[in-house]
Amino acid sequence: MTSDAPAAFSVRPFRPEDETALYRICLETGDSGADATELYADPLLLGHLYAAPYGRFEPELAFILEDAVSVCGYVVGARDTAAFNTRLEREWWPDLRARYPLSHADAPPHTPDERLIAQIHTGFPDDTGLWQAYPSHLHIDLLPRAQGAGNGRRLIGTLLGALRAANSPGVHLGVGARNERAIGFYRRLGFQELARTPGAVTFGMKLR
């Protein structure tokens, strides 16, 4: 924990037993920062995509925020997005695709669960142009009680330090276009907007 950190919060490396907390927090912040529990019939789906595989495959780039109560936030990342996606295809998606078969392969997904299951079957899209300059990526989530106290900045700073130590030249992230609070947060940290669609904004930062 840095010297200016509030005494109530501490940052530490991820441990395997934190995986349950990754799933929980990913769901409880999964609606553009708000609780997504009521949106999904299966509470694990969001974590299957955006949290748990980072702890499994790149634990050295996963950091936990906790207070006296429990884990209340995390930041996770991948040093090389292309290599990370290749590993997911080999070691993560196959079991999940068997667990979550596409019920109507020719029909477009309609429910939030169906959309995430479709993503499991397609994997994450390639973006070679982005990855050349910003090969690393990250996800960060904080429960409401941990927000507004500098914890997000501290988590991001911890991960950026780890990525620089791993000699990454740049990092990118995506945020929902309607999550104005997060968009402002990334701008204040020095991330630059790289692309925008109706549903999402992509930010990047050079690390060297």
Automatic annotation (TrEMBL):
Transmembrane segments: none
Domain of life: Bacteria
GO molecular function, one term: acyltransferase activity, transferring groups other than amino-acyl groups
Keyword terms: Transferase
Cross-referenced Pfam families: Acetyltransf_1
Key word Transferase present: yes
PANTHER family recorded: O-GLCNACASE, PROTEIN O-GLCNACASE
Protein name: Acetyltransferase
Organism: Deinococcus peraridilitoris (strain DSM 19664 / LMG 22246 / CIP 109416 / KR-200)
